[in-house]
Amino acid sequence: MDIIVGSKSPTKIAAVKEVFLQDNVTANDTPSLVSDQPFSDSETRQGAINRASGSLETALPGTVGIGLEGGAMYVGNELYLCNWGALVTADSHTFTASGARILLPEEIKDALIAGEELGDVMDRYAQRENVRKNEGAIGIFTNKHVSRKMMFTHVVKLLYGQWEYWTRG
Ligand SMILES: O=P(O)(O)OP(=O)(O)OP(=O)(O)OC[C@H]1O[C@@H](n2cnc3c(O)ncnc32)[C@H](O)[C@@H]1O
Ligand SMILES: [Mg+2]
């Protein structure tokens, strides 16, 4: 099966490859059509759906599209890290799933509200480069017990399993 991931992020591509072991996985930088830093479940999920369906626009017929999107969402006044995934089949059936959430510290929340992107805030906070392509915010704040790749791999498994259940014959 041909799978196209709607992002050139090595972390996202690696997560898809880890689940779709037998398949031909390629990547295409596809716009999420939502804010660079989504601020709700709804917006983050929409970004994942847009990346999955958008990635199919130039793909060969029969290709399956996968979109993964990171964002933040409020529970009351507290801001959590959230992530969503979407899988769109060739006949336009869409499966969605969300990933683990963790509370973001107040100073990270303040920087996001001020308009910064989480990736940039994390690099400054952790005094590192490219946190988003490595363990991610989730990896830093869970002391590396759950990396961004592990979290996305779980999301992709949730997508894969739902798709498999739906196509079971
Ligand atoms: O190339 P793309 O696919 O855009 O990959 P990305 O790393 O920018 O990932 P997203 O656009 O899905 O993430 C949306 C925003 O949230 C940030 N983000 C989400 N999760 C993160 C994490 O675990 N660590 C660091 N930044 C994260 C990311 O930097 C963006 O600002
Ligand atoms: Mg991005």
UniProtKB/TrEMBL annotation:
Keyword Calcium in annotation: no
Keywords annotated in UniProt: Hydrolase, Magnesium, Manganese, Metal-binding, Nucleotide metabolism, Nucleotide-binding
Swiss-Prot/TrEMBL catalytic activity: ITP + H2O = IDP + phosphate + H(+); XTP + H2O = XDP + phosphate + H(+)
Non-canonical purine NTP phosphatase/PRRC1 domain sequence ranges: 6-157
Cofactor(s) the record lists: Mn(2+); Mg(2+)
SUPFAM superfamilies according to UniProt: ITPase-like (SSF52972)
Pfam families per the UniProt record, alphabetical: NTPase_I-T (PF01931)
InterPro entries: ITPase-like_fam, NTPase/PRRC1, YjjX_NTPase
Top enzyme class: hydrolase
Protein's UniProt keywords contain Disulfide bond: no
EC number in record: 3.6.1.73
PANTHER family found in the cross-reference section: NON-CANONICAL PURINE NTP PHOSPHATASE_PRRC1 DOMAIN-CONTAINING PROTEIN, PTHR34699
Name of the protein in question: inosine/xanthosine triphosphatase
Organism in which the protein naturally occurs: Lentibacillus juripiscarius
